[in-house]
Amino acid sequence: MDERLARIGRYAAVARGLEREGAYNAAKLLRAAMLRELVRYAEQEGPAGGAVAAASLEALLDDHRADLPPGMAEHLDPLPEAVRAGHTIALTDAPRVRVCRICGHTFLGDDVPPTCPECEAPALSFHEELPVWYLAPADRGAILAALAAGPRHLEQALAGRDDAALARSPAPGEWSARQVLEHLLFSEELLAKRLGRLLDEDGPDLAAAAVWADTNASDEGSADTGEPASAIASRVEALRRATVTRLAGLDDDAWGRAGQHPEWGRVTVLSQAAYFARHEASHLAQLVAAADGRLPGRRAAH
User: Fold this and answer.
1) Residue 71 phi/psi, 5° resolution?
2) Domains of the chain: which residue ranges?
3) Out of 99, 110, 119, 217, which could bridge 103 as a Cys pair, Cβ 3.0 to 4.6 Å?
4) What is the dotted CATH code of the domain comprising 135-291?
5) In angstroms, rounded to a whole number, what is the distance separating the alpha carbons of residues 74 and 222?
6) Is the pLDDT of residue 242 over 50?
7) Which residues make beta-bridge pairs with 261?
8) This prediction's pTM
């Protein structure tokens, strides 16, 4: 693993050097190679389970507190307890964070200076680290197309599998295809209700209303419906088609209608549509694999 980390660092360093020479397209290829290695390393070495993840964060703070950007350790210190308890970490507990692309200076919170205090680069050069890639800026047409394609992806994943097979877990502790569908149903219902509030109310607080009392602020959740996988899939598909129909009829102003979320801050119709479209995409490989009786990236055991 030390060799892999050294390779990741080398990719990053050479890419940086190429950027300095204006060889941007060469640098992008190396950044892609770097991300590939980083994702695979993190997937293999990442702690699994809330208790283990919390303990890993505590150990990291013990070992690298002095290496973290100023002020970050103080925000991280109380978070292992929240992770261990399965609580959502609100934006008030983990503020927005930006990094100067030129020198790496890190800014916590919303009080951001017009220029970097270290290298004097303008604030335009600061990169904001988002909580999850689902929240990245999105193209409306691409997101609407992705949402519209969702039912077809589900049908393809489940084709030829009966409910009994879809209820079997591919490995101990792993979700069955049926459980993945229940998670997608929970998300689809949340998206439909949330879009309704954003379109019908002015600046709704998406966690304060009673209808959200038992919904995690992180939008992650699931519920045991007791239904077979085929019935759950039909419900997901029907909800999605209704959502796509509603979104397709919106004008520019409607797509920009906004509310407040305790974990993400300001959200819009577009950002929520993008969030849930990307969330579904992140679970499709899991669904396909579970329906086939295997884990993502592994062959089926026959």
Assistant:
1) 85, -15
2) 95-129, 135-291
3) 119
4) 1.20.120.450
5) 32
6) yes
7) 265
8) 0.86
